[in-house]
Write a structure and sequence with these properties.
One of its GO terms (cellular component) is cytoplasm. By secondary structure, the protein is of the alpha/beta class. It has ten helices and 13 strands. The longest helix has 23 residues.
Amino acid sequence: MKGLKILGTGRCLPDKVVTNDDMRAFVDTSDEWIRTRTGIQTRHFCAEGESTASLGVKAARLALERAGISPEDLGACVGCTCSADSAAPTVASTIQRDLGLPKHIPYFDLNAGCSGFLYGLHVTRGLLLQSDKPYALLVGAETLSRVMNFQDRGTCVIFGDGAGAVVVKLEEEAPYAYTLGAEGGDDVIYIGGYGSKEPYIHMEGQKTFRFAVEMVPWCIHELLGQSGLKLEDIDWFVLHQANKRIIDHVAKKLGMPGERFYQNIAHYGNTSAASIPIALDEMAEQGLLKRGQKLLCVGFGAGLTWGGALLEW
């Protein structure tokens, strides 16, 4: 079975850092209130002149440089976002233009909320199976600060802006398993669409927590069942960075050491489809990832959607 191997990563965070104390200018909150409920201490917000696409372009450039491949060998480029700057052009097509990538391959965005990166991985693999090119570029990019209601402390303190990118290669015998799903509804997490009077993020925190702590372990066991592996065989669990309490709860429920579950939510907040590729880039930069390691990634969020993938570094 042909699986995906990650060859290079990149990330881009806006320069503007917003602390929990800074959030008090917008809403009745405190550093203690935010940290104890979410684990978040700071997040990044875009400034004038920055956009979802511009963050994605910078992250993609780094991932391509670190992968050390020729852009001519790319078979696809997929953008994952629920906060695109416009319906068209897409983030992916802007990346093509700004980086001068080859024109005659697919460039498009997909939206599966915070599960977008996992959906993107499986779509990317499918595209490569039909391509004569071995590599693909996958970018998660979000500017959620621009779709937040800064009078709603249940959401505005949680989300941040950023982008992460990976270059993957389709390889024979590379371990691969996936799970994707959705339960349609607009009563737990949703963003008002075009023309909406309230084009903001809405989230029911308790319902989201209950959904996540049930669905994430289910996804993990599903992936292990497909691959024939055990929890102990996984080197790193890289979950969507939505809430520290969710990640800690999942680790405890599985009986696994918390150190095997990478966390960076304290610094970035919830960056939706960008959170997992941002985490992967940080891990690579810190030397935590070694060739041949097995990574199990799981995302969940608006839709409601969920997704998981077993990959090799």
